[in-house]
C-alpha cells in the first residue's frame, strides 16, 4: 500500500472517530432537552411510548346494537349478520338507548 493511501485511511479513521463523538454529543444534548420538556410538561412514560409508536392503542369494541334476551347474545350491527339473527326481526332486538337526558326548560312531563 502506498504512503498516500495509508495517510488517507488514517485521516478517514480520525474523521470517523470525530463524527461518532459529535453525533454522541448531539444525541446527549437532544436527550437532555427532551428530558427537560418531559419533566416541565408532566408527560408520562405511557404518553411518550404511545407517541413514538411503541404502544398502539386498541380499538374499542363497538357497543351492542342488537340483543337477544333469550340467549344473551349481542351484535354491534357491524360486519356480517350473525347466524343467530337469521329470520329474526331486528327491530324487536334493538337495544334500548339510555333515557333522554333532562335539560332545564324541557317540559316533558
UniProtKB/TrEMBL annotation:
GO molecular function, one term: DNA binding
Keyword Coiled coil set for record: yes
InterPro entries: H-NS_C_dom
Keyword Coiled coil found: yes
Keywords assigned: Coiled coil
Domain DNA-binding protein H-NS-like C-terminal: 56-95
Alphabetized Gene3D superfamilies for the sequence: Histone-like nucleoid-structuring protein H-NS
Superkingdom to which the source organism belongs: Bacteria
Coiled coil: 5-32
Signal peptide: none
Annotated protein name in UniProt: Histone
Organism annotation: Burkholderia territorii
Lineage: Bacteria, Pseudomonadati, Pseudomonadota, Betaproteobacteria, Burkholderiales
Amino acid at each position: 500500500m502506498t504512503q498516500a493511501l495509508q495517510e488517507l485511511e488514517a485521516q478517514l479513521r480520525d474523521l470517523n472517530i470525530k463524527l461518532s463523538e459529535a453525533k454522541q454529543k448531539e444525541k446527549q444534548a437532544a436527550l437532555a432537552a427532551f428530558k427537560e420538556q418531559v419533566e416541565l410538561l408532566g408527560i408520562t412514560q405511557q404518553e411518550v411510548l404511545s407517541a413514538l409508536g411503541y404502544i398502539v392503542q386498541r380499538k374499542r369494541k363497538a357497543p351492542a346494537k342488537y340483543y337477544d334476551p333469550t340467549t344473551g347474545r349481542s351484535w354491534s350491527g357491524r360486519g356480517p349478520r350473525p347466524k343467530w339473527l337469521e329470520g329474526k326481526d331486528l327491530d324487536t332486538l334493538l337495544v334500548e338507548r339510555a333515557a333522554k337526558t333532562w335539560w332545564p326548560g324541557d317540559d316533558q312531563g
